[in-house]
Amino acid sequence: MDIKKRIFEAQDIKYRDFQLKLTPGLTAEYMIGVRTPELKKIAGELIKDGSADSFIAELPHRYFEENQIHAFILSEMKDYERLTGELERFLPCIDNWATCDQLRPKIFRKHTDDVYQKIKQWINSDHTYTIRFGLGMLMAYFLDEKFTPEQHELAVNIVSDEYYVNMMRAWYFATALAKQYDDTAAIFESRRLDRWTHNKSIQKARESFRVSDEHKAFLSTLKVTGNKPENRFRTVNLSRKQVTDIYRKYMKKDFPKDELKPLPMILKSLDDGIYSCIGLECDGKICGYAYFVCLGTYTLLDYFAVIPEKRGIGYGSEFLRLLSDFFSRYSMVLVESENPEYAEDEDDRIKRLRRIDFYIRNGFRDTGARALLFGVRYVLLEPEISVHHDIKEICSAYLGHYRAVLPEKMFAENVAVE
After folding, report:
1. Using DSSP, how many helices (H) and how many strands (E) does the chain show?
2. Which has the closest alpha carbon to 184: 172, 167, 195?
3. Measuring CA to CA, which of 56, 242, 265, 337 is 20 to 30 A from 11?
4. pTM of the model
C-alpha cells in the first residue's frame, strides 16, 4: 500500500484548516487534513495486510496524520515487550497533544504493575508530550480498581511551565475527583497544587456530569482567588541543625566520600560567615539544598542537590530560578561541573553532559575556563544574568578562592586552571 497516497485520497482541506486551529504549533505544511475515523481505518488496513511493521519502523514521520496512524497501530499492539520498545522510539517524536492523547495501548491493562513503573519514568522526562502521555496513562488505568492514594503524588510533584503538561494534570485531578473523591479532595483542601492547575482542575470537575452537585458546591469554595499567584516554593537560610540533619540524611549518599567535606568543617565555615547554606522549601518541607563558599564579592557553588524523591520533576530548575536573587548579590558566581572530555566511560560521559546541559538549560553559560582540582577536571560555568567575565578574570578568581581556603602546599599541588 502506498500509505501517503492513501492518506491524501481522504484529504479534506476545510477539515485540515479546522484541525490546525485546535493544534497550536502545527502548520499546513505538516498536516494533510483527514478525519480520525478514516485514519483508524487506514491503521487497521496496515495491521491486517502486515505492512504496519514497516510503517512504524520509519521515524520520524513528516505528517501529523502519519503520527496519528502510528499511535493507532501501537494502541492495538498485543506484544507488550515489543510495544514498550516502540514507545521509547515514538514518544520523543510526538509534537502535539492530539497524537499524544490518541495513544492508548489496550495491552496495558494486562501489565499494570510494569506500566506503573514506566509511568514514573515518563513523567520524569524533559519532553512535554512524554510527560503528558505518562499522566494520561495514570488517568486511564489507575483511577479505578488499581487506584492507590500514593499515586496522586506523581502528579502533584510535577513542576512545569508547559501548558499541555499542566492541562493534563488538571484533567487527571478532575477525573480523580469524579472517581476517587475523598482521597483527591484532600489535595485541594491543603492546596498542594500550583494556582493554575488547582483552579483548572476544579473548573473541569464542576463541568463534569460524574461529580455530584454537593461535591461541586464544596469544590467551588476551594478556588484560589486573588491577583497574585501562589508559589509553593521559596528559598530559606538553613540553620546549623538543618545543615547537620541534611548532611547525615542526604549528603553522605548524594556525594562520593572523597568529595564530601567533614561536617565540622562545613559548620565552622558557616559560623565564620564564608559559607551560605540555602534550602529549597516546598510546602513547608526542605526539598533541596545549595551550599556556597562566599569570599567578598565572589561565590562558588560547593554542593547542589535535590532530595532523591523529588528529582527529575523540575525541582532543581525551580531552585536555580529562585537562587537568582542570591546570585545578584555577587559580582561573580561560578559553578564547577565535571568535564565530559575526561569521563571514565560512555555512561559517565553522558551523565556529565546531562549535568552541564541542566545548568545551561537553566540560565548558565560555559565560560570556556577549565580547572583541575585534586585530580578532577572541571568545566566552569556562570549565570547568564551576571556580567560575562573573560577567562582570565574567571581563572584568577577561581585560583584566589582556593588559595584562600586551602593550605599553601595543598593548593600548589592540587589546583590549576586551563
Report:
1. 22, 8
2. 172
3. 56
4. 0.58
Give the whole-angstrom CA distance, residue 74 versus residue 83: 7
Number of Cβ within 10 Å of residue 312's Cβ equals: 17
Whether the Cβ atoms of residue 337 and residue 301 lie closer than 8 Å to each other: no
| Rounded-to-integer distance, Cα 305 and Cα 384, Å | 21
On whether the CB atoms of residues 311 and 254 are closer than 8 A, the answer is no
What is the distance between the alpha carbons of residues 84 and 291, in angstroms, rounded to a whole number? 40
Tens of pLDDT along the chain (418 residues)?
A: 789 999 999 999 999 999 999 898 899 999 999 999 999 999 999 999 999 999 999 999 999 999 999 999 999 999 999 999 999 999 999 999 999 999 999 999 999 999 999 999 999 888 999 999 999 999 999 999 999 988 998 898 887 888 999 999 999 999 999 999 999 998 898 888 888 899 999 999 999 999 999 999 999 999 887 644 455 688 888 888 899 999 999 999 998 887 888 999 899 888 888 889 999 988 778 999 999 998 888 899 999 999 998 887 778 888 898 898 888 888 899 999 999 999 999 998 998 998 898 888 888 999 999 999 988 899 999 988 767 888 999 999 999 888 887 889 998 999 998 8
Q: Which residue, 198, 179, 178, is CA-closest to 188?
A: 198
Element (H, E) at 204: helix 195-206
